[in-house]
Amino acid sequence: MKFSSAVIFLPLLAFTSPAMAMASKGAKALIAFIDDIPDSKLTGWTEGEHTIYKDIDFRLDNQGKTADNKHYNVHVQINNGVTISTLKKNKGQTVSNVLVPISNEGALEWDATKIKTELKDAKKI
Predict the structure, then answer these.
(1) Of 4, 43, 75, 110, which alpha carbon lies 20 to 30 A from 17's?
(2) 3-state secondary structure the chain
(3) Number of neighbouring beta carbons within 10 Å of residue 77
(4) pTM
């Protein structure tokens, strides 16, 4: 019996799995949250760990300075009361984090626009 090799081309179907759709919803909500942070909340931070801004789904936390005192360790985390069903299983999880540089005088070296851009670029969902 002789076999011939044949190449079959199937059309590539574009689809989105439920998991992909869920991640997309969470990612869109995260970007919207970051965009909605008032610029005034991204200046003049105080010492120590504290929440900078929050809504029902996310919170922006200042986790304090790095050991060398040259950066603030800033995280966006999923709140316990999150309303986005796909994120409920990840309550408390960090979904974006950046190290914001501090000048020798103690001021933030990034403005609000730069902090928001960096947080969006660092998103994990």
Answers:
(1) 75
(2) CCCCCCCCCCCCCCCCCHHHHHHHHHHHHHHHHHHHCCHHHHCCCCCCCEEEEECCCEEEEEEEECCCCCEEEEEEEECCCCCCHHHHHHCCCEEEEEEEEECCCCCECCCHHHHHHHHHHCCCC
(3) 21
(4) 0.79
Per-residue pLDDT of 56-83, as tens digits, reads: 999 999 999 999 999 999 999 999 999 9
Q: Across the beta sheet with 71-78, what order do the strands follow?
A: 50-54, 58-65, 71-78, 94-101
Pick from 10, 11, 54, 48: which is nearest to 34 by CA?
54
CA–CA separation, 34 vs 117, rounded Å?
9
